Amino acid sequence: MSDSTQAVLAHTENNVMTITLNRVDKKNSITSAMYAAMADALEAASLDAGVRVVVIQGHESIFSAGNDIGDFLNGPAATADSPVFRFLRGISSFPKPLVAAVCGPAVGIGTTMLLHCDLVYAGDNAAFSLPFVNLGLCPEAGSSFLVPQLMGYARAAEALLLGEPFMAEAALEMGLINRIVPPLEANALAQRQAQKLAAKPLSSLVETKRLMKKSQAGVVAERITEEAVSFGRMLKEPAAREAFSAFMGKRKPDFSQI
Ligand code: COA
User: Fold this and answer.
1) Mean pLDDT of 190-209
2) The CATH number of 3-183 is which of 3.40.630.30, 3.40.190.10, 3.40.718.10, 3.90.226.10?
3) E strand or H helix at 102, and its extent?
4) Ligand 1 atom nearest 127 alpha carbon
5) How far apart, in whole angstroms, are the C-alpha atoms of residue 184 and residue 119?
């Protein structure tokens, strides 16, 4: 299951491409190869007139535990061309409707990628968290701009500075998600909504999305780039190295000397 060739599945049916995170044994944590597969799928979907909507989904028990921490520890230095940044540029500027189904934990990029989806359906077991500070890192995916905008600064500070998780009800109230359903129904609901979108005129969908996003598209793109520079630097610094080693060693991190 952890074989990266199978860890992201993409298939298209009735004009809807479905991208499934399929590395459940590692809690759908996302490796570099998986970012590359997702970036490729989004690029193909953007160019293919036969794809009108994309659905991103995980498993009913887990959406994603975020970036693979082993990759953080051992991977090459992140550059603008790294698969993760290709994926972030792809999802944040994706022109067609994006629908997500989220159940269980959605950690780090598991939550921040949702900021770029148009419709999000969550299982009642969904738990969102942005533990970048706890990992010695900083926000990514434009979340340092989009999270305060979405939930207000006070709640953003709890989510991003304290790294406190929030559950589906709070996410619904803040407008991160559209609806809460039993976990086994989330993927099916996302598919039904995607099919409704796919039956509408694509040019109207694309133009409406573009117009809705226009006022912040430039700011978000700039912020993703600025965050990426800081994030790439912080990955190599002592706080992050300690956090990653602690996770891999199944112990609590010790930041007292850092
Ligand atoms: N990177 C790499 N491996 C991960 C991972 C990650 N982000 N998240 C989970 N895994 C692995 C665990 O190491 C474990 O592997 P093992 O079976 O070989 O020991 C396996 O997935 C199961 O994880 P576990 O922690 O035992 O599951 P859980 O149900 O107790 O907890 C989470 C689930 C998501 C709450 C927990 O795994 C977690 O907090 N993960 C890290 C999240 C994180 O900090 N991500 C980075 C965000 S930037």
Assistant:
1) 98
2) 3.90.226.10
3) strand 98-102
4) 35
5) 18
Rg (CA), the chain: 17
Q: Is the predicted pLDDT of residue 78 greater than 90, yes or no?
A: no
| CA atoms within a 13 Å half-sphere pointing along the CA-CB vector of 257 | 6
| pLDDT at residue 5 in the model | 55
Instruction: Say what the pLDDT of residue 80 is.
Output: 76
Residue 1 has pLDDT above 80, yes or no: no
Gap between the Cα atoms of 244 and 258, Å rounded: 14
- On average, the pLDDT of the chain sits at 96
Could you tell me the residue ranges of all domains in the chain?
3-183
Question: Ligand 1 pocket test: which of 23, 27, 250 has the largest number of ligand atoms within 8 Å of its C-beta?
Answer: 27
Residue type, 176: L
Q: Which tokens belong to 152?
A: 């207000």
| 253 pocket-lining for ligand 1 (C-beta < 6 Å) | no
> What are the φ/ψ torsions at residue 200 (nearest 5 degrees)?
-90, 165
Chain segment 116-167, per-residue pLDDT in tens: 999 999 999 999 999 999 999 999 999 999 999 999 999 999 999 999 999 9
| Vertex 96: Cα angle to 92 and 102 (nearest 5) | 65
The rounded Å distance from CA 70 to ligand 1 centre is: 10
Buried/exposed 210-231: b ≥16 CB within 10 Å, e otherwise: eeeeeeeeeebeebbeebbeeb
CA quadruple 63, 145, 223, 69: dihedral sign: negative
